[in-house]
Amino acid sequence: MDFLPYNTRVVLLGVTLLGACAGVIGCFAVLRRRALVGDALSHSTLPGVAAAFLLAGGKHFSLMLLGAFVSGLLAIGALALLRRWTRIKEDAGIAIVLSTFFGAGVVLASVIQQSQESGQSGWDAFIFGKSAGIVWDDVQLIAILVAVTLVIVALCYKEFLLITFDPEFAKVQGWPARQLDFALMLLLLVAVVVGLPAVGVLLMAAMLIIPAAAARLWTQRLAAMLFLSAGIGVLAGVVGTFLSDRASVPLGPSIIFVAAFLFAFSLLLAPRRGLIARWIARRRDREALLAHGGELPP
Q1: How confident is the model at residue 172 (pLDDT cuts 50, 70, 90)?
Q2: N or C terminus of the chain: which is more exposed, having fewer CB within 10 Å?
């Protein structure tokens, strides 16, 4: 990789870590039907990023990530309160939290744009992602967060497996189902925070969901799905980085475009759940039915 510019190599390492982390955590979000929660968390980090910038008086990467985490944590708390103490349905609660937090972030963003530092802040890289906004120190922090996240998933794999597919059985067996569910939400939030510099607030939910949804088409085993999703996320990050570097387009949309292409490829060509495989299976069933003298419905 010596033929690549230094900045491109740094960004490439960062998005590789992001793809692996988002791919793994996104699997649990997809299987638990919480894709919209990931979207709400990604949008809810905007006020934290903006508030951290204002408090620090400029761009400070670690403080902005901390602000994003705190803001996302408040969003998780708001979702839990709405779910537990009101009769509002979950989808409505997600919409309320997403719009409220994102609206607050837009207000703070306007304050930043009116400040004297707005021209040199670079904080807007957190909206759509920007390769120039990632430096080596940022990658080191991202690597630590990703390593901690993946280690927790590896250590608690059996627990997360049970809570994902049969939470009621986990409760009956006396497992701390609520605490495990909260831990998964925290890991989802960490994955969102890690991806903000590269993919941005608006597109981070797609980075969590698309690789996992594509991997789900290829396998029914969770372990295989985790590895496949991580691989798809890494591939999307690498190819998207090259597209961004060559075409001079924002990094986040480039990565999501590649991920969407990989999902479309999986949707068509997956061996059992792909559209082509399902069409072939239906045609074979039809031919077998006709061969045995069966009658097709009109």
Answers
A1: confident
A2: C
CA 14 to chain centre: 15
pLDDT at 258: 94
Structure tokens belonging to residue 70: 């705190």
Tokens 């990703």 locate to: 146
Three-state DSSP class for residue 70: helix
Q: How confident is the model at residue 187 (pLDDT cuts 50, 70, 90)?
A: very high
Model confidence at 177, pLDDT cuts 50, 70, 90, reads confident
Rounded distance, CA 118 to CA 83, Å? 38
Q: If we measure between CA atoms, which residue out of 70, 26, 9, 24 comes closest to residue 193?
A: 70
pLDDT of 118 reads: 47
H or E, element range at 1: none
User: Rounded to two decimals, what is the model's pTM?
Assistant: 0.87
Name residues whose C-beta falls within 8 Å of residue 30's C-beta, 6 or more positions apart in sequence.
209, 212, 213, 216
The distance from CA 30 to its chain's CA centroid, rounded to whole angstroms, is 10
Question: CB within 8 A of 130, min separation 6: which ones?
Answer: 122, 124, 197, 200, 250, 251, 252
Work out the angle at residue 82's Cα, subtended by the Cα atoms of residues 68 and 188, and round it to the nearest 5 degrees.
35
- Residue 37 pLDDT > 50: yes
Sequence-distant (6+) residues with CB within 8 A of 204 are: 22, 38, 42, 192, 195, 196, 252
CB distance 74 to 66 below 8 Å: no
- The mean per-residue pLDDT over the stretch 214-240 comes to 93
Look at phi and psi of residue 176 and say left if phi exceeds 0, alpha if psi is from -120 to 50, else beta. Answer: beta
Side chain identity at 19, as an amino acid letter? G
